[in-house]
Task: structure prediction
Amino acid sequence: MSSWFWKAGAAGAAIVAATIYAAAQMAPPMAPGYSGMHGAMGAGAAGGHPHMMEGPRPGPMQGPSAMSGPAESHGMSAPRFGSMRPTMPGQDAFGAIQEIVQILQADPATDWSKVNIAALREHLIDMNEVTLRAKADERPLANGVEIAVTGKGRTVAAIKRMVPAHVRELAKLGWSAKTEDLPDGVKMTVTSADPKEALKLKALGFLGIMVQGGHHQPHHLMMARGEMGVHQR
Ligand SMILES: [Cu+2]
Result:
């Protein structure tokens, strides 16, 4: 077994190989003159195969991906992955913040005296709490669904910030929605006079209803810009 496979871990090898294949298909072609520009750096690499970064390579031992690094540095003949490079920034919240920061940095009008990435981070933590930690007890009604959303500690605070705010967005979708405060969360009731919609509400349940609408993306950007508290926070 070649070194890079060993590094990737035998259990993940098939997935890694499939991912490499898929990414290689999607990756943009190398710019003309690439090998000329980086010829000197390619001298010690296996076959001098095109590296995965678009820009100048930082150093002989600093490949952007663990998949190209070991084989190259050991001078072994590695599979050719073309111009594949990693696209995943890490966790979803990390990626969401990275995207927002890139938007702010690309916009010359960004007012850095107001930018508040910490507030966006707090909101993404709330989203994590509500999505993954909150307990949702769903009770079907004749015309919709009633959901007791509860939790402990930070989860309760996140529920009380996010769920009532979301109910205001649901009204825009034509459903009747309301919340009542509970000691450890919120009771959300969503109904419709249309029997088809009522059936759908029961099927959607807590998170199916929470993901309705596309307000998070613009709210996240506004929050990062310091222009509003997301969800009227
Ligand atoms: Cu959000």
About this structure: DSSP finds ten helices and four strands in the chain. The beta strands are 135-141, 144-150, 176-182, 185-191. Residues 94-225 form one domain. Residues 123, 127, 216, 219-220, 230 surround copper (II) ion (CB under 6 Å).
